[in-house]
Every structure is written in structure tokens, then in C-alpha cells.
Amino acid sequence: MPITRAAIPFAIVMALAACQKAPEPAAPAPASAPATPSPPVAAPEPEPPADTIAAYKLLVARQIVAANPDSTFDGPLPAMLPAIVVLDLSIGRDGTLKKVRVHRSRDSEASAVALAAVHRVTEAFPPTAQLMRKRDKTLDFSETFLFNERYQFQLRTLSGPQ
Q: Is the pTM of this model over 0.85?
């Protein structure tokens, strides 16, 4: 059977394909080959500096709760709170706790729990310089501890409307 002009390119491609070396099967990976390391997980972004005292109090309250997981409770507050303690906190420009004192309380045991909870925070609080006038040495504010019957607390800043 004669080859037509149209079949010549097809015949050339087939001849070239037959000349190529067959691909070798891939060698299996050795059993002791180290696994490829996964990409590093990004560290959580630090919270931006607070631009208001209310926002700063939120950051401080979260730190106090995080340092006292066994002393806090979630959910609705009891109808009758057995104890309420108001603490005055003074925090320096660099975030160090300069002073904490009981402003108001009728229960010495609850006061001791509240003071210990603040002192249990081991890391410095966020810096306060952006919230202070140049001549101020500390940022002073109050935090209210709301206690249930088991002397666990919620912080008023975090408890929201009831």
C-alpha cells in the first residue's frame, strides 16, 4: 500500500516515538527517609495595644482569668452574690503591677482570693504608656470580682450585661 503525503508526518511521529527509551519505574523511597518537615506554624498575633481604658481593662481581665482557671466560673451570675470585691490596680508604663489594694469588700476571704488572683499573673500586663499623660507614673483603675457560693469569681469587665 503506497504512503500518501498526508500520512508522512504521522509516520515520522510514530517512528520517533518508537526510538524513545521507555521510562524507568520510580524507585521506592527508603523506609528510613526523613519525613519532610511541615511548614512552621505562625505564632499567634499579639493583641494590639489598647487605645481606651475600657479596652485595656479587657486585656488585663483576660490575663487575670487565664492565670486563675480553677478560681473562675462562666455562665450567668447567681441571683444573690455571696461576695463582691472591688480592687484598685496601679500599673506602670511598662505593664508592671505597681500596687493593688482592696477598695471595697465585706468578706475578707473573698478579698484574699481576689488579691491572690491578681498576684498570680506572672507576665507583665500590657504597657500603658499610650493611655497616659506624660507626667503620670501609673494607670489606675478598678476591677470588680463577683463571687459565687464556692468563692469562684467572674470579673465584671468580662461578665457583660446580666
A: no
CA atoms of 99 and 121, how far apart (whole Å) = 13
**Buried/exposed 118-148: b ≥16 CB within 10 Å, e otherwise:** beebeeebbbbeebbeeeeebbebebbbbbb
3-state secondary structure of 89: strand
What distance in Å separates the CA atoms of residue 139 and residue 60, rounded to the nearest whole number?
12
Other CB atoms within 10 A of residue 64 CB = 25
Render pLDDT for 79-90 as a digit per residue (tens, 0 to 9): 999 999 999 999
Q: Is 129 helix (H, G, I), strand (E, B) or coil?
A: helix
> Cα(34)–Cα(36) distance, rounded to whole angstroms?
6
CB atoms within 10 A of CB 56: 22
